[in-house]
Amino acid sequence: MSIFSFIKLAGESIFGGKNEEEELVAKKAAAEANELAEEAAMARRLEETIRDLSLDVEGLTVFVDDDRVSVSGEAHDQATKEKVVLVLGNSTGVASVEDNMTVEHTEPEAQFHTVVSGDSLSKIAKHYYGDPMKYTLIFEANQPMLKDPNLIYPGQVLRIPRLD
Predict the structure, then answer these.
(1) Are residues 23 and 60 in the same domain?
(2) CATH code at position 155
(3) What percentage of residues in the chain have a pLDDT greater than 90?
(4) % of the chain exceeding 70 in pLDDT
(5) Mind giving me the DSSP string for 90-148?
(6) Which InterPro entries does this UniProt record tie to the protein (predicted)?
(7) Are strands 68-77 and 111-114 parallel, antiparallel or unpaired?
């Protein structure tokens, strides 16, 4: 028995199909089209989630590019704008959010806090306000995304509103 070596992309296609290089180009184009369709579907789901949470943004547009999301539209107020950014950023698969929104009624911006292991809303409130009992301010500032003040997770980003 003998083994003969050949250059696999050289020669003629005897099966009447595309050569391997053409097939690779076609597969790459199909994969790119599939990725674009998945990104568009994710953008629609994110927009739907924002609307389901009753966050008031006129002309809301979400665009997904790999793990980056950009958002535009006019939010009713600063809190709504920040909540939209948090909904997007706290979604699986999102690494960064480009905020291109405007605000109808301006107000001071809140701070943001990334939850670490061992955090609780009362611990976070003590850090920012000096009073652990002010955890309810943080909980309320993050509704409707938070349903229970005891259910936060490492990596989650929360709004920390300024005290008046």
Answers:
(1) yes
(2) 3.10.350.10
(3) 73
(4) 88
(5) TSTT--EEEEEEEEEE--PPPEEEE--TT--HHHHHHHHHS-GGGHHHHHHHTTTT-S-
(6) Bact_Kbp, BON_dom, LysM, LysM_dom_sf
(7) unpaired
